[in-house]
Amino acid sequence: MSVQWKSRRLAPRALKVLERHKGSSPAVAVFEAPLGTAARAFVAAYTEAGAYKARWRVEMDEGRGSMLALKKEIDVWKPHVARERPGFDLAGIGDKPTVPEDLIEDAQALADELREVRGADGATVAWAAAAATSITEKASRAENETDEAAAADARYSSLLSQVREAQAVFDAELSRFRATLRSLLGSSHPDFQKLRVSRASSRDGDDDPTGPAPSDPVTPAPTPPRV
């Protein structure tokens, strides 16, 4: 949530500035409901999305990992199917490794072919049956893991959308609050200055210790040696 972190740092400051000055003017006191509500709602949405991000990453990693494992299992058995089942078209098997539905369908087709492998006596071949079982198990796991990843991705996207919506409401109220403070206190007053977006990356006594830390200064790239 790199776009929202500045607003997240400004929200707690705005609440403290509001608390300090609401008794000085009715024009400031009126902000207690709209600005206070907007700031708290934004912080809550930001916090919820941030807390869910770790789970989202785990689910996405597990989904990708299960797909990679299935693709590998498909690839190691394709040469054997080519030898034992020459009439089976392998050209499209595993050709879309990032599309869960396609890869799982291909895996099931390959497993079905392996189950058709027969020895010279016409009996089922043990290695082929075992390979088919292994592919089927990995396909089932991939289906479960990618379904969970898709659900987590949808949930995270929804949370981020809520953050953006809450930020828009808060930013609008903060802009109005700053305009009132400028008229009341003057643009040089510390409580006005600390609410400017350009000051969000600076440390301040009103910062929320649980909020995002200010960004580290950018270290210039070293000058390349002259050739």
From TrEMBL:
Residues 192-227 are annotated as: Disordered. Residues 211-227 have a biased composition (Pro residues). It comes from the Bacteria. This is Uncharacterized protein.
